[in-house]
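User: Let's play a game. I give you a shape written as tokens, and you guess the letters that built it. Ready? Here's round one.
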């Protein structure tokens, strides 16, 4: 009998807890940015970013040894949301001045790209073993 999997998840079984928690905290900080303000959400974001900066390389290195559950969907989601927000969160402080982007956009993009950058590393050994 086939294992029943949930229809839609950003992480699969085997994903490290620090990565799951870090991704959740980063997303909370991003989506509360406009309501709670940059000062509060920047502090929350730093906590999530530290967990991701620590956990993603470990997840990738453990993935080379066979651990399942690399959160590539989380990386794609963060990157896609960041790119979408890039168009939405632009502003000018005055007419004729340079167009700026809310700080939350590059922060989300950076975390998404960080997750995606380690994905090939996690798959490296599995591909070698299959050949």
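Assistant: Ready! My guess for every position:
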């Amino acid at each position: 009998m086939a294992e029943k999997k949930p229809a839609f998840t950003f992480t699969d079984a085997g994903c490290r807890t620090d990565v799951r928690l870090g991704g959740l905290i980063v997303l909370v900080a991003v989506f509360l940015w406009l309501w709670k303000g940059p000062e509060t959400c920047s502090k929350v974001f730093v906590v999530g970013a530290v967990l991701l900066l620590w956990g993603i390389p470990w997840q990738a290195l453990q993935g080379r040894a066979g651990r399942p559950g690399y959160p590539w969907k989380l990386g794609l989601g963060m990157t896609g949301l960041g790119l979408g927000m890039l168009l939405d969160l632009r502003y000018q402080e005055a007419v004729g001045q340079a167009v700026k982007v809310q700080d939350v956009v590059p922060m989300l993009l950076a975390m998404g790209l960080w997750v995606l950058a380690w994905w090939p590393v996690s798959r490296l050994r599995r591909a070698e073993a299959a050949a």
